[in-house]
Amino acid sequence: xxxxxxxxxxxxxxxxxxxxxxxxxxxxxxxxxxxxxxxxxxxxxxxxxxxxxxxxxxxxxxxxxxxxxxxxxxxxxxxxxxxxxxxxxxxxxxxxxxxxxxxxxxxxxxxxxxxxxxxxxxxxxxxxxxxxxxxxxxxxxxxxxxxxxxxxxxxxxxxxxxxxxxxxxxxxxxxxxxxxxxxxxxxxxxxxxxxxxxxxxxxxxxxxxxxxxxx
Length: 215
Hints:
By secondary structure, this protein is an alpha/beta fold. The chain has a single domain, classed as Spore Coat Polysaccharide Biosynthesis Protein SpsA, Chain A. Helix content is about 35%, strand content about 25%. Strands 3, 6, 7, 8, 9, 10, 11 and 12 form an eight-stranded mixed sheet that branches. A two-stranded antiparallel sheet has the order 1-2. Strand 9 (about 130-135) and strand 10 form a beta hairpin.
């Protein structure tokens, strides 16, 4: 099914926001840390909602109750089955629950994420098994867009043999690369890819946001 978004045709798109990490450097669940009046996860949800037909938040095992009062109406969460496996566990669970033909993936700790960048990666992904941005020569698989069914099969296959690395899964998919030059046309400073991992990062982000983000 094709959904018309502006001048672009994109198949039905789900979005998964990854919030299942341990957040050891932040000292508390990063997704729920407040930044400019809202939690980090709310900022990311707002960005992906501008292009996705549904939003699913991946959370750690037993931590769903912490998100009930935070998630905007219409969003849902899916808990990991097993703790400590990493993002592949969350992606396997959420891709199984998603309904879109393609799935946009975003971390919960990137409050400068731009909807336009998400939309562009999604358009590049159409017609293949997905697309991943390339920043400073390195792929960013947790900012990719994946065709749901083949990706789910690969995630489950890698997990079944004890694999945990996202790059191992990506190697088994026919993915297009989104060059850094194209990304900078949308987000010149590539702040969409900046993960806030520490209190120091949060303070720097607050200073930058004073000049770039409305309250």
